[in-house]
Amino acid sequence: MTRLVAYIVRFAVILFGYAVAALAASAFLNILFLASLGYAPAQAHPAAAASLYFSIPFVALFVAYFGFMPAAVVILIAEILGRRDWLFYALAGALVAGVFLGLVDNVRESTFAVTETSAIMAVIGGGMVGGIFYWLSAGRWAGSWWVEKAPTSPGQSGS
After folding, report:
1. What pLDDT, on a 0 to 100 scale, did the predictor assign at position 44?
2. Radius of gyration of the chain (CA)
3. DSSP state, 150?
4. How far is CA 14 from CA 8, 20, 67, 137, 141, in A?
5. N or C: which end of the chain has fewer CB within 10 A?
6. Is 134 within 8 Å of 93 (Cβ atoms)?
7. Would residue 114 be called left, alpha or beta, if left means φ above 0 and alpha means ψ between -120 and 50 degrees?
8. Alpha carbons 134 and 50: distance in angstroms, whole number
9. Which long-range contacts (CB under 8 A, 24 or more apart) does 104-109 make?
10. pLDDT value for 14
């Protein structure tokens, strides 16, 4: 029974980490977009800051939707292998973004097609930021449910 609870808790942590990753990637993309328009924090109109409160969670929904399947595969691999290093998650986030770019490139009439080099690099950077934030919120404990605890003294059993 305690094993089932551990699985459910780990699944909840993974979902939380995925939500944090989507929000972080969205915030990164929003900040890059504002910077590309020439806005600086000192010049920002109060409405620009208020619009971020809406646009970051809204764009995060799209980020989470389009990255779900490749991210689920990467998270499953990381959990099985017990990968806990930030570089793995940063590179995996770039891979997830690359898979997204490859999928939307196959659909030429897609409204989500990304063709400019700077936009492609922004999406890959957003994937890396999302991967790092996933590591911060959930990836540091990957595979913790998988590994049996070692006995603390000679007289105790492992479970």
Report:
1. 65
2. 19
3. P
4. 10, 10, 14, 8, 10
5. N
6. yes
7. beta
8. 26
9. 104/66
10. 92
Per-residue pLDDT of the chain (159 residues), as tens digits, is 687 888 888 899 999 999 999 999 999 998 888 888 777 767 667 776 777 788 899 999 999 999 999 999 999 999 888 888 999 999 999 999 999 888 877 766 666 677 788 888 999 999 999 999 999 998 888 877 665 554 555 655 544
Q: Which two tokens stand for residue 14?
A: 């993974």
Token pair listed for 82: 């017990």
Tell how many helices (H) and how many strands (E) occur in the chain: 4, 0
Which amino acid is located at 78 in the chain? A
Residue 20 in tokens: 């944090």
Q: What are phi and psi of 45, to 5 degrees?
A: -75, 145
State the Cα–Cα distance between residues 158 and 45, nearest whole angstrom.
59
Q: Identify which of 108, 133, 110 has the alpha carbon closest to the alpha carbon of residue 29.
A: 133
